[in-house]
């Protein structure tokens, strides 16, 4: 049975980058999408042009309690087959220059709201004895590097959370796939938070040299279809980094300090 065709998939971060490419590819494969982000007008336009019948469910994920409540309201009227936790915000600022409020903001969006949405769908998935939670973490959730301390912290955390949830839910036939992309050519660096919470609004050469959002979306869909637990997606050093870290941790620490 297809994991995508005919399934209801709740996708966050659908207005841009990886989420937008995922929305296009999933709709093409026959999924019915519930599209989430803050930019309601963009989502409406997207829902209109995608093949199939989709729903816009705009939500600000910077308030996890609010996100949980909205998630519960959604699940009261919808059966969710797959939740894709894709929305996220990155960071470009050194520890000493970063306000505590920025760390909190990164954790609210990249960690607590991911937990909130996952919890909001999980009881239904357990009762139905089927479901799939997909989370777009990052290579930054495997390997620490400069200027991303809050982002990395949130992504490391989310990978650990999903490992625990996978173990708890295995007996209920609820699956968990964690995706760790390396560099992908999206708006991520433009939208990254700096030390005072303002957006970086700049291109990042690492991101420019990354894979396309479409390539990333294709790899994510393959991982969902194959029920993979965790997949590293990307090219070059950003893809190799988690393996290097595992076998040559000192080398990776030295490289991180130099870059
Ligand atoms: N690009 C990369 O190199 C890369 C690498 C590793 C991991 N990732 C991860 O991939 C995911 C997607 O990022 P991207 O690269 O596609 O970046 P992007 O182009 O900046 O897209 C981010 C998405 O998240 C949504 N979002 C941001 N803040 C939100 C909030 N407070 N409430 C609701 N939605 C919010 C945005 O929608 P609105 O602004 O409309 O709300 C947008 O749809 C993120 O989790 C990111 O950490 C990206």
Commentary on this structure:
Belongs to the short-chain dehydrogenases/reductases (SDR) family. The chain is α/β, with parallel strands linked by helices. The chain has a single domain (8-258), classed as 3-Layer(aba) Sandwich (Rossmann fold), CATH 3.40.50. Helix content is 50%, strand content 13%. It contains ten helices and seven strands. It has helices at 17-28, 40-49, 64-77, 100-128, 149-169, 188-191, 205-208, 213-225, 236-247, 249-258, and strands at 8-12, 32-36, 55-56, 82-85, 131-136, 174-181, 230-233. It has a seven-stranded parallel beta sheet, with helices on both faces. The longest helix is centred in the middle third of the chain and has 29 residues, at 100-128. The chain is globular and about 50 Å long. It starts with 7 loop residues before the first strand and ends with a helix. The mean pLDDT is 98. Bound molecules: NADP nicotinamide-adenine-dinucleotide phosphate. The site of NADP nicotinamide-adenine-dinucleotide phosphate has 31 residues, from helix 1 and helix 6.
Summarize the structure.
The chain has 259 residues and is α/β, with parallel strands linked by helices. It is built from 10 helices and 7 strands.
Produce the secondary structure layout:
Elements: E1 8-12, H1 17-28, E2 32-36, H2 40-49, E3 55-56, H3 64-77, E4 82-85, H4 100-128, E5 131-136, H5 149-169, E6 174-181, H6 188-191, H7 205-208, H8 213-225, E7 230-233, H9 236-247, H10 249-258
Parallel strand pairs: 1-2, 1-4, 2-3, 4-5, 5-6, 6-7
This protein binds NADP nicotinamide-adenine-dinucleotide phosphate (NAP).
């Amino acid at each position: 049975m297809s994991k995508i065709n005919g399934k209801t998939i709740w996708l966050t971060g659908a207005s841009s980058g990886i989420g937008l490419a995922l929305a296009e590819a999933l709709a093409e494969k026959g999924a019915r999408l519930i599209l989430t982000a803050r930019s309601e007008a963009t989502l409406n336009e997207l829902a209109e042009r995608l093949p199939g019948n989709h729903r816009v469910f705009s939500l600000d994920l910077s308030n996890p309690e609010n996100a949980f409540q909205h998630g519960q309201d959604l699940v009261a009227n919808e059966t969710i087959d797959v939740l894709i936790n894709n929305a996220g915000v990155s960071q470009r600022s050194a520890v000493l220059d970063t306000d505590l409020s920025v760390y909190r903001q990164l954790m609210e969006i990249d960690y607590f709201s991911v937990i909130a949405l996952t919890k909001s769908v999980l009881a239904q998935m357990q009762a139905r004895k089927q479901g799939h939670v997909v989370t777009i973490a990052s290579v930054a959730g495997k390997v620490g590097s400069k200027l991303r301390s809050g982002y990395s912290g949130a992504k490391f955390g989310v990978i650990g959370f999903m490992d625990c949830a996978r173990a708890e839910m295995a007996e209920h036939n609820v699956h968990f796939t964690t995706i760790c992309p390396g560099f992908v050519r999206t708006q991520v660096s433009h939208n990254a938070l700096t030390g005072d919470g303002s957006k970086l609004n700049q291109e990042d050469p690492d991101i420019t040299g990354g894979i396309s959002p479409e390539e990333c979306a294709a790899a994510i869909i393959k991982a969902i279809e194959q029920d993979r637990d965790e997949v590293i997606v990307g090219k070059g050093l950003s893809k190799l980094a988690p393996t290097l870290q595992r076998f040559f941790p000192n080398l990776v620490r030295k490289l991180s300090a130099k870059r």
